[in-house]
Amino acid sequence: MTPPTGPQEPRDTKHPVVQLILIWIVASAIGIVLVLAIDWFPPQADTQAEAIDKQWDVLLVVSVPIFVLVMLVAIYSVLRFRARPGDKRDGAPIHGNTRLEVVWVTVPFLIVSALAAYGWIVLDDIEAKKPNELKVLVKAQQFNWSFEYPDNDKVQSAQLVVPKGRPIDFDIEASDVIHSFWVPAFRMKQDAVPGITTHTRVTPTRIGTYQVVCAELCGLGHSTMRQGVRVVEPGAFAAWMAGKREEKAKAAEQGGGSQ
Ligand SMILES: [Cu+2]
Hints:
Elements: H1 17-37, H2 47-81, H3 98-126, E1 134-141, E2 144-149, E3 155-157, E4 160-163, E5 168-174, E6 179-182, E7 189-192, E8 198-202, E9 208-214, E10 226-232, H4 234-255
Parallel strand pairs: 1-5, 4-10
Antiparallel strand pairs: 1-2, 2-3, 5-8, 6-7, 6-9, 9-10
The protein binds copper (II) ion.
């Protein structure tokens, strides 16, 4: 043990608790305003995006005060308890604080459990089967996507076209390696795994063209595995589908077969 060489009077044990709580509240409020002002995501193009973005905001609002609290205690401790020049004493022998430990286990447990329950409810809701779904088969291969409409003469398309307002039920398949079907504007992402069919659902709400992205490293061309998804009015979708069916019928006629 180093013999004490510094001042011998006990350190002041009072902490500016009220000031720290005020700083915590003000800094948290500023932090929450800042993180909510950030435009984190691409446009919301389906009902799922609205639910997911709302959940993201809730996570931010819960996380910011915790982050600020941890940083505040850390910064305060570094400033307050640092060794002053010439002070060679050991720190006080602390053997824990049962009340504090119970609090810091229980409170995070409750917060995380509540957030997990909320996440479960949101996921259950956005993945639920809906009436009048349009089935679309998503086929992934190195390095492109193709789409088939099983209830519409198995029409094939290189571009995904979906009607606004109608729930879409995607079956997802891969023919070589694992890919991941992701439309950032829809927020939903699902692995495409050889040998099994995976599923995801969206209900498009916004007319426009968005990107289909492969979100699983699948080989040299992975970064180029991008295609478009077009959300159109139901009437335009019906017209597009009629054109595709006609195209397909003509091709079958010329080919002399049914496929
Ligand atoms: Cu891929």
